[in-house]
Amino acid sequence: MTERITVSAAQGMDAPHLPSWVTEDVVTYAKAGVDTAEGARAVEAIKGSVHSTYRDEVIGDIGGFGGLFSLAAAKGMEDPILVSGTDGVGTKLKLAQIAGIHNTVGIDLVAMCANDILATGAEPLFFLDYIAVGKLKAEAVAQVVEGIAEGCKLAGCALIGGEMAEHPGVMAPDDYDLSGFCVGLVDRPHMLAPDRVETGDVLLGLASSGLHSNGYSLARKVCVEGRTHYEIRLPHEELGGASIQDALLEPTRIYVGAVREALHAHPGAIHALAHITGGGISENLDRALPAHLDAAVELGSWEVPPIIAYVCHAAHLDEEEALKTFNMGLGMVLLVDESQAKEVASTLEGLGETVYRIGEARKGTGKVAYSNEGALSAAMQEAWQWT
């Protein structure tokens, strides 16, 4: 016979606890953790930053149910195409939260989206953001939006709307996440695409500003974990006097202004672009290739930023793994008509870009093919005196 046991919920250590609201007379939204008044204060705090990005095509103001933008710019186009992109900043945000520096990751957010749609030759028109926070603090959100506005100005697009969502109980009070949405415009006859790439096209690499916004789970693991806040703020000779924190938080470079100037200055010369993001050169440059051509890349033909070499050294990455993890110093690669490559490079350099001739398009199967293997590792080993 089975013995019947009766347990009082009040007696059991694992008994369910009564919800916190049971003893409350009134449960308001604020008591549940969402402060709508702070949300309104945050909107007021960001208005100046938002307005600083406005273009002539912006209609109305923030606060409506939708952002309005005139498509007057499409009137002179033969076949106008809207190009959209969405992205985030990833775990780089965790480093920003550790450092308490929130006004640079917004630039990263815009860069990841605007550089993506630039790969079609499109002009970024407008941008929207989504900010999820554990506990809304108007000043911190204003810093984030300040960075987003700066990124929009660098990309030439308007910040016309967004959303701030407070997630108490889901996210830690000091935690936040960002998403961005960008829309651009290009005339179909002038679109950049893999099918325009030809044998002999020159690969022009544009220097990155560091890790940009990819590989940060690895970078934090080998460069931040186990170190104190004081240690990551110390200047490092190997990083040109920068601290680990500052080098890792260097914003993603936005290439829109320079590349679009080059497109206008040299019509038809640039055939395709590759934005080098997650997956590195190995898994992004092939996206700009037709199936019958390879990108023949000469390793050692460009410089690797100190912070990238630092992270690769700390993680003991070999050359192959590094090339498919980080941008390795190239944030964008252009495939350019051989006869105009020098002129395009000169224009880009005049606009402040560091340009490297890193290879050419050759007959193949749509892949990235490296020559001079080992040169990248050797250069970094020499600089860092690796053993």
CA gyration radius, whole angstroms: 25 Å
- Helix proportion range: 25-40%
For the record, the CATH architecture of the largest domain stands as Alpha-Beta Complex
Beta fraction of the residues?
15-25%
What class, by secondary structure content?
alpha+beta
Q: Based on DSSP secondary structure assignment, what is the total number of beta strands? A: 12
**Biggest sheet layout:** 6 strands, mixed
- The helix/strand series, from N terminus to C terminus, equals HEEEHHEHEEEHHHHEEHHEHEEH
**CATH homology superfamily name of the largest domain:** PurM-like C-terminal domain
CATH topology of the largest domain: Phosphoribosyl-aminoimidazole Synthetase, Chain A, domain 2
Strand order of the largest sheet: 8-10-7-11-9-12
User: How would you sum up the global shape?
Assistant: globular
Low-confidence stretches: none
CATH class annotation of the largest domain: Alpha Beta
Number of helices: 12
* Integer average pLDDT: 91
Count the domains: 2
How does this structure look, described?
By secondary structure, the chain is of the alpha+beta class. It folds into 2 domains: 36-63 and 77-190, 60s Ribosomal Protein L30, Chain: A (2-Layer Sandwich), CATH 3.30.1330; 194-384, Phosphoribosyl-aminoimidazole Synthetase, Chain A, domain 2 (Alpha-Beta Complex), CATH 3.90.650. 31% of the residues lie in helices and 21% in strands. It is built from 12 helices and 12 strands. It has helices at residues 36-51, 92-99, 105-118, 138-155, 216-223, 229-232, 244-249, 256-265, 306-315, 319-323, 341-350, 375-384; strands at residues 58-59, 68-69, 80-88, 123-133, 158-166, 176-187, 202-207, 270-275, 293-298, 330-336, 355-363, 368-371. The strands form 3 sheets. Strands 8-10-7-11-9-12 form a 6-stranded mixed β-sheet. The chain has a 4-stranded mixed β-sheet with strand order 3-6-4-5, covered by helices on one side. A hairpin with an 8-residue loop joins strand 1 and strand 2 (68-69). Helix 1 (36-51) packs parallel to helix 4 (138-155) and helix 3 (105-118) packs parallel to helix 4. The longest helix is centred in the middle third of the chain and has 18 residues, at 138-155. The radius of gyration is 25 Å and the shape is globular.
